[in-house]
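Title: Request for sanity check on Cytochrome P450-like protein 3 prediction

Description:
We are preparing a figure and want to confirm that the structure record we downloaded matches what your pipeline produces today. Could someone re-run it with the sequence below and paste the raw structure tokens into this thread? We only need the token string, no images.
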Amino acid sequence: AGFETSSTIMSVTSFFLATHEDVQDKVYEEVSEAIAQNSGSDYLDYNHFQGMSYLDKVVHEVLRLYPLTLIERLCVKDYKVPDTNFVIPKGMLVQIPSSAIMRDPQYYDNPSEFNPENFSPEAKAKRSPYSFLAFGQGPRNCVGMRFALLQVKISLIRLLAHYRLEKCAKTVSQLTPDPKSGSAQPKGGVWL
């Protein structure tokens, strides 16, 4: 997992937690419970992370709403785009914005709204696994996915165990990806 993408996920997740206090409260309860089960220590092991289902939903929902990368594939043969005269030539690198699928109302109710329950077991069972592409899917998915998710969760747990995230005067109502960033860092940063 890259440093820039992981730090951006942490920043963007912090933004969503600060702007959705009810969600932050639920994550805090889950974090507090895990710490209590670990004799009061916030140095949790991998098994504790596996039991933090709400934090997992939150991180996945952030990645759905704010994907950091494009999906890249190399065209293996000339391909004529249906109903057009455009041909993608063999050997061309094709970049696909995963946000087009991850904000499709066919897969997500109210696709522009932040709703961690989009990743409940029931909601996930109703849609194709290919409707969530933050790390790609199948044999060519991101090799750093598990590490990145663990890194983000550890950081958020340590942060939320000791601090409450709040908006400030510079907090924007909606994040906009910086077009100059290779990993969709928020334009102007995240202010909390």
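Thanks, this matches our download. The longest strand covers residues 71-74.
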